[in-house]
Design brief:
Elements: E1 8-15, E2 18-25, H1 35-45, H2 47-54, E3 65-69, E4 78-83, E5 88-89, H3 93-105, E6 115-122, E7 125-134, E8 137-144, E9 149-159, E10 163-171, E11 175-180, H4 192-209, E12 223-229, E13 239-245, E14 249-250, H5 256-268, E15 277-281, E16 287-298, E17 301-310, E18 312-320
Parallel strand pairs: 2-3, 4-6, 11-12, 13-15
Antiparallel strand pairs: 1-2, 1-18, 3-4, 4-5, 6-7, 7-8, 8-17, 9-10, 10-11, 12-13, 13-14, 15-16, 16-17
Amino acid sequence: MDERAVAIETVEMHTGGEAVRIVTGGWPAIRGETILDKRRDARERLDRWRRLVMHEPRGHYDMYGVLPVEPDLPGADMAVLFIHNEGYSTMCGHAVIALGRFAVDTGIVPAVEPVTRVAIQCPCGLVEAEVAVRDGRAGAASFVSVPAFAAHLDRTVEVPGYGAVTLDVGYGGAFYAILPAARLGLSLTAPAARLVEAADAVSRAVRAALPIEHPVEADLGFLYGTILTDGGDGREAPTVNVCVFADREVDRSPTGSGVTARVALMRARGEIAPGETRRFRSIVGSEFTGAVEADTTLAGRPAVRVRVAGKAHYAGRATFTIEPDDPFPEGFLVR
């Protein structure tokens, strides 16, 4: 990395309080024929750039970002990689909601009123966003997920410090262990540090005990994190959840791919019907809705496409640079 040449341009957004740092210039070219090839190239050859913009002092432990890349799927308006404190995720709903608005506002997709459709290629597949447009301005957005499914239902796992715990694993573009916090002896009003410790313990135990396999693409077969819920179903009142993902990162939004996974689990149990909408609330009080868009299959197994809706907001623009004598050109993390 030539520190004198570094000038990374970003647009700063947030969805439900969760950061979306969209890189718009200055990133070295990412190589690969497919988006998963590009994800591997970014991880193996260019990871110091991720650390530069995600880690302190330019980012922070819970920063989240987007790297636009060239799409390789027909019909995709744009393609993106997702970055965070530990690496590269396969799906991010809060970022897709922001990207829908960003694509309309920047002319990547011409604005059409009252709704503009934006096809976004993510590492997990093609995700279709719909953005409300009024007087030429983009507003709230929704997206329809890739096929989502229940990977494990009612599995009991021994979690050190918490004993035998029964949980589910759902896939919504990424895999999550999902369970009520009460099964760990906690309430979601507990200090965030306690929730992080518990969720991280669950993630470690599930990775050790359960197979996590995607039926089509091996690169997608890993547990991304754990979602602790209040035990509600979002029907009469919003159900609160806290998602702890990557390296103990805490999502401030209700987690778009997590909402997708939760709806997929509800559908697998017959607890939600096509077209029915549920409400999901985050640790900071922001809300998404999730609804069954359609039943489908994935490699012969029952699956569902889920529509998740929310709104993103702009927070600013930035140019990140490195002075030649900066002792932290790749950043650091403190928690």
